[in-house]
Amino acid sequence: MTTAPSFPAARAAGCPFDPPPAIRSLQEETPLARVRLWDDSTPWLVTRYADQRKLLSDPRVSADITRPGYPSPTPLRGGAISFILMDDPEHARLRRMVTAPFTIKRVEAMRPGVQEIVDDLIDEMLAGPNPADLVTAFALPVPSLVICQLLGVPYADHDFFQDKSNVLINRETGPEAKAAAGAALSEYLDELIGEKLEKPGEDLLSGLTERIRTGELTRQEAAQMGVLMLIAGHETTANMITLGTLALLEHSDQLALLRETDDPKLVASAVEELLRYLHITHNGRRRVAVEDIEIAGQVIRAGEGIILANDIGNRDPDVFPDPDRLDLRRDSRRHVAFGFGVHQCLGQPLARMELQVVYSTLYRRVPTLRLATELSEIKFKHDGSVYGVYELPVTW
Ligand code: HEM
């Protein structure tokens, strides 16, 4: 057991888009292997796509962070961040209350507004200093503005909530700092909900206050759901915008495809392929077995932790031939970048639409967009639960 390799593992120098080589070897040789975490616990790491999907849809597998054996990515365990870390029926009860705004129909109705946000931000970037940091000038504001509008959170507070969510999703920050950031965000959402209880608007949080009034939901549950959606709604998409842009700048033939097309099907396929190829939620889905489970010739015992490494799952050659090649024309719709099973990403229609608008607009409107530094100078978020870059200096 002491020989279990450390997880998360390091990526290879010079290969910022590829999963760590140690994890790839496990996929080839030991698809169900013990790995060692920060607390010396040794959960199972599942590296093959088919096993991952089986386990993620198995009711004997729990997402409840409070269960003994749960493979926590950091020392902070308490204070479940809403339904993402709960099991059914509680998970389903809460998730059901917020599914309506994320249906494809409702999300499509938001597309013209998102296009306007994207166009305005590009106008501002082009009128501002050159070079610019694509993260602050464009990639963070797009999803932050969108999720703020949808939830009914004032965008003017973005420095506050972006700062707190950065602390929460960074693996290296200590438990005290994390607890303080979580408490500050919960308090902030609780105050907002208080205001909306008095004066409801048309937004998602106001919709939740109606359920507080009818007794279906507590104010604390509503605040926790708000925190979850605020963080999930901007961090992930922002990193997909910057890392996606960087990957395209490094694959100029693929960038040219996007720059020259006005075919929405190709744009949609490019979004799926970039989601597959980059897989930004790179620390794996965390679960714990509640019963013994036989899989891949092994038995996972009740109470043992399980990590589904979906990043390498998206590079499984049994499902995606030549998996390390970025190929915007391939059909990658079966990827697991949004997870799988009951916890599959609630915001995926929104994320897809935002990325389609961004990828179909940015490179066409700024055809000379290029890096203003060397790839080797770029600082990657190896320490975060969401992968990406801290800054992306670009010029045009
Ligand atoms: C490219 C962008 C995004 C990526 C890659 C992504 C990825 C994921 C993944 C992998 C999960 C599954 C977690 C698990 O099984 O443990 C998830 C869940 C979730 N995501 Fe996203 N996400 C993105 C955007 C969004 C957006 C825009 C929202 C909007 C609010 C959102 C809200 C959520 C929520 C609420 C859950 C929990 C679902 C549940 O537990 O039932 N995500 N996301």
Could you walk me through the main structural features you see in this protein, from its secondary elements to its overall organization?
The protein is an alpha+beta fold and 396 residues long. It has one domain: Cytochrome P450 (Cytochrome p450), CATH 1.10.630.10. The protein is 48% helix and 8% strand. It is built from 14 helices and 10 strands. The chain has helices spanning 21-29, 49-56, 90-96, 104-127, 134-139, 141-151, 158-169, 175-198, 204-213, 219-250, 252-260, 264-278, 310-313, 348-365; strands at 32-34, 44-46, 61-62, 132-133, 285-289, 293-295, 298-300, 305-308, 370-371, 393-395. A hairpin with a 2-residue loop joins strand 6 (293-295) and strand 7 (298-300). Helix 4 packs parallel to helix 14, helix 7 (158-169) runs antiparallel to helix 8 and helix 8 (175-198) crosses helix 9. It is globular. The structure holds protoporphyrin IX containing FE. Residues 63, 83-84, 95, 228-229, 232-233, 236-237, 240, 280-281, 285, 337-339, 343, 345-347, 350-351 line the site of protoporphyrin IX containing FE. Pathway: Antibiotic biosynthesis; vancomycin biosynthesis. Involved in the coupling of aromatic side chains of the heptapeptide of vancomycin. One of its GO terms (molecular function) is monooxygenase activity. Keywords: Heme, Iron, Metal-binding, Monooxygenase, Oxidoreductase.
Draw up the topology in text:
Elements: H1 21-29, E1 32-34, E2 44-46, H2 49-56, E3 61-62, H3 90-96, H4 104-127, E4 132-133, H5 134-139, H6 141-151, H7 158-169, H8 175-198, H9 204-213, H10 219-250, H11 252-260, H12 264-278, E5 285-289, E6 293-295, E7 298-300, E8 305-308, H13 310-313, H14 348-365, E9 370-371, E10 393-395
Parallel strand pairs: 2-8
Antiparallel strand pairs: 1-2, 3-5, 4-10, 5-8, 6-7, 9-10
Helix pairs in contact: 4-6, 4-14, 6-10, 7-8, 8-9, 8-10, 10-14, 11-14, 12-14
Pfam families: p450
Family: Belongs to the cytochrome P450 family.
Organism: Amycolatopsis decaplanina DSM 44594
